[in-house]
Amino acid sequence: MANPENEREVWLSIGSAPFDRDLQLAIIDYDGVNALVFPCRRILGGWIKAENGKPIEVRPTHWRGWGSS
Question: Can you say how many angstroms the Cα of residue 65 is from the centroid of all Cα atoms in its chain?
């Protein structure tokens, strides 16, 4: 399990993303690594916006705790 202080700074593998916590997600595309600008939560089968519970259609590659630098 990741160190809670470290996970606010370093991008971690998406497979280790926890449930029931606000997270910042990153996706890698032709421009490089791009962080989403809103908090997300992992649910069974995908991801939702933490603010309203609406599903988001992303395939994130990395995560860190919300509020990271």
Answer: 7
